[in-house]
Write a structure and sequence with these properties.
The protein is built from five helices and seven strands. By secondary structure, it is α+β, with helices and mostly antiparallel strands. The chain has a single domain, classed as Ribosomal protein L5 (50s Ribosomal Protein L5, Chain: A). A five-stranded antiparallel β-sheet has the order 2-3-1-5-4. It has a two-stranded antiparallel sheet with strand order 6-7. A hairpin with a 2-residue loop joins strand 6 and strand 7.
């Protein structure tokens, strides 16, 4: 299964529980580790994130971000999501880092995963669309 890690800094002015909730909103079936100054969420479930992307009808945008963050070895995808947007159940990719920090998401393939490489994983999460409708394999 794909390993998903979400890291979120917790600034002194922030409520740690709210940061945790933002970090788990898109990846709800994950374990939470509280470390000094940050929350780390680890899981293996991609369906809630995938489903939310489809509901929001932002498949092409998310696919572009996933592919942009593909590691050179083709084994992982890394991207940033706005903490504030995630807290509201949205997916937003800030153009520059926010002063309070963003959610740093990494999806890493492991031996035996269904996908041979991270590009195929990105296309599974965000299949081909035409005129706003999914036309690719799901």
């Amino acid at each position: 299964m794909v390993r998903v890690t979400v890291e979120a800094p917790v600034k002194p002015t922030e409520d740690e529980a709210k940061v945790r909730d933002a970090a788990t909103r898109l990846f709800p079936h994950s374990a939470v580790v509280h470390l000094p100054g940050k929350v780390v969420v680890e899981g293996r479930e991609l369906q809630p994130f995938r489903g939310r992307v489809w509901e929001l009808r932002i498949i092409d945008t998310v696919r572009a971000q996933l592919l942009r963050g593909m590691a050179a070895d083709g084994r992982s995808l890394s991207f940033r999501i706005s903490k504030q947007a995630a807290a509201a159940g949205k997916v937003s990719f800030p153009p520059t880092p926010h002063a309070l920090g963003d959610l740093q998401v990494k999806m890493e393939l492991e031996p035996g995963d269904l996908w041979p490489d991270a590009e195929r994983l990105a296309w599974w999460i965000c299949p081909e669309t035409k005129d706003g409708e999914i036309v690719g394999p799901t």
